[in-house]
Amino acid sequence: MARQSISFTPPNNDWLNQQVESKEYSSKSELINDLVRQARKQQAQVDWLKAKLDKAEKSGFTEDGLLEIMARSKARFNAKL
Fold it and tell me: Suppose 73 and one of 37, 48, 52, 62 were both cysteines; which one would form an S-S bond, judging by CB atoms 3.0 to 4.6 Å apart?
């Protein structure tokens, strides 16, 4: 595993310590890795949605605007989860 040295602001460090102290996570490293996994999953969802929006806009299939297409695509994506 890659080893990194990072710095936290006092409020963020306090929150990290609280999570470990509450036994939610066994270490800060475990918590940070979980947060990164969540961010990567969220980015994958955003990328998927952008691809769907681009495809819809380029297809000329609808007269709906960006917001309508995005809302419909997001609802379909969430239904699959």
Answer: 52
